[in-house]
Amino acid sequence: MELRTNRRALVGLGVAGALIASSFTLLRADTGTASSHREAPMTAGDPRNDNTDVYAFVSPDKPDTVTLLANFIPFEEPNGGPNFYQFDTNSRYNIKIDSNGDAKPDITYQWRFQNQDKRGNTTFLYNNGPVTSLNDENLLFRQRYTLTRVTPKGSETLVSDGIVAPSNVGPASMPDYATLRAQSVTGVKGGGKAFAGQSDEAFFLDLRVFDLLYGGDLSEVGQDTTKGYNVHTLGLQLPKNELALKGDARRNPVIGVWSTVDKKGPNGFVQVSRLAQPLVNEVVLPAGLKDAFNSVSPDKDADLPAVVNRVTDPEVARLLQSIYGIKAPATPRNDLVEIFLTGIAKGNGPIDVDLNSQTLNKDAGKLRASEMLRLNMSIPPGKDPSRLGVIGGDPQGYPNGRRLGDDVVDISLQVMAGAAQTGKLVDALAAGDRVDANDKPFGATFPYIPLPGNTSVNQN
What we know:
This protein has helices at residues 7-10, 177-184, 212-218, 240-243, 280-284, 290-293, 305-312, 315-324, 334-342, 408-422; strands at residues 51-58, 65-76, 91-98, 107-117, 141-151, 154-163, 186-187, 193-200, 230-239, 254-265, 268-275, 373-376. It is an alpha+beta fold. The protein has one domain (7-429). Residues 1-36 have low confidence and may be disordered.
């Protein structure tokens, strides 16, 4: 499929990922936790089910495949023993795909975990000697998983006995952690690869944005708040045709992606986390509605008028005006609605470009407005990727999916301040939060996200 772009329109594509699913006055939180770095009231009580980030991108070294990553458990301190971090055995972790645009999952990739704990009453140690392989007898605690592919036609097991890469205890316990990571990557039935395990926290940003937007005068910038922390990652690398509508990525190249967690309770499984576009639950939702967002499925978004109202008059733009004097763009912000709820395509709204809406799929039906991360799989990886993604002239970047190196905070601030309206970046925010890249380089092969650290964050 040919990508038809308009350079001025591209500037409007950057942020609104964070800016739509917001005003849930019609909802109530039945249960659940929060997603995306502890921003909702209930997240502190259940971090294992806290989905922090979702990534979807064409694999740079295997451009006939797509890589999907979902991270969990924010702010893992590397030395956080003796009970190191693990997935919840009472939950189902999901990555969901909508290829026809109806906001319902056409494919769900689902992980379930089991513990193998040999410590008993003998020791408090995670391992009682150096661990040189995932099956090393010195590793006293490990998790195994089953990965299932679920469609309306039924389900099939892709991985029946996967092993989770363990927490990185330290150099004496795990002298070659890279080998353990490599052993944890496994092939999946039908082609592709799967991964589950600990990783470096790759989302780079200065979280002092919550101190009146960087101190009220942009003085609180330049500190990568998540540097040194780890997360737990679920990853898939799959052929494009496995994800595309009718198995044909040439005719139907656009997919929608989101992640959820379903936790088992007395009445069965209940969705307690939902995440797609970055920063939605952090900076869009008011505090009283954050938990409710985690229980809602994308196909319900269009039935909530408050969702559209919140994005067409976004709070971030008003805060930039009141704190920094940067005039908020005129409302309603229909460009943000297109970016976030419908995907970007000519005829969907004011942005004159075909990019990542499921309406570009030749076999798609009627589009249902919904919040998800949309990726056009036909756009190849750029030779010189821009951290600013589409507003940096790189159509393979955010919000066309999300890569590990996309600077979603700077992109979001620019678009909310008016870049989508004026066709140029806002000079007053040109430096952004001055955290432009992750502190560790990304890998050249799947799962790309860096290895977890084993050095305490509390180092001076």
